[in-house]
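Per reviewer request, we include the raw input and output of the structure prediction for the construct analysed in the revised manuscript.
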Amino acid sequence: MQVYVAELHVHTVLSPCAEIEMIPPLIVRTALERGINLLAITDHNASANVEAVMKAARDSALTVLPGMEVQTREEVHMLCLFDTLEQLADWQRQVDAHLPDLENNAELFGEQFVVDETGAFVRRERRLLLASTRMTLEEAAVRVNALGGLAIPAHIDRKAFSLIANLGLVPEGVPFAALEITRHISSAQARRRFPQIGDLPLMQSGDVHRLDEMTGPMVLTMEAPTTAELRLALENRAGRSAALRQKAHAGEN
């Protein structure tokens, strides 16, 4: 078994709400400086910078999982984590087919930059990424699972774009691997506040939009940094485990 300090919800400059410092070399350097060795890149409805971060992390101690934060028809944010760029590309095609073709207004929403592994500018993403797809939450989760990925509703304790705030419940029968809580709440607090969680596994992430938000809140004991192993760790099965690295901060998002 190996121990992984994980930050599984990280945005790059492709997300219009991320800071300009969120470029591949700085993301990788900050993660390594903070003892993080497992990262997931999860831009809004987009994946064009994932490979660049993976390249920036090459030959380092950091593993980068390809991912995305999709926005469903219900305006719920959901993390989609995969093992390969091929899986992510397939998922991107499905998201693109369900995303409205709206032009981004950079002055209103922020720039959407595609960059290379050095952080150098490649192009601007024309399409507005801060929009809901036409996929329902259930449909998106089913599609992610069909590709071999993990579907994890994001920041359920937030008051916007969250499963609890928008739906008021956790729908039965939807194949979620876990539910994500923010760094502002502990798992015990979340289960007390939101009894509808039931016994679903909880994962804590920073929803990192700035480098100083990268703390690596999860410690995972697994055989390998894969989604299959991550699922076992989140469920604390087969000798794998997941634990919080630090206490929750005061306040809420």
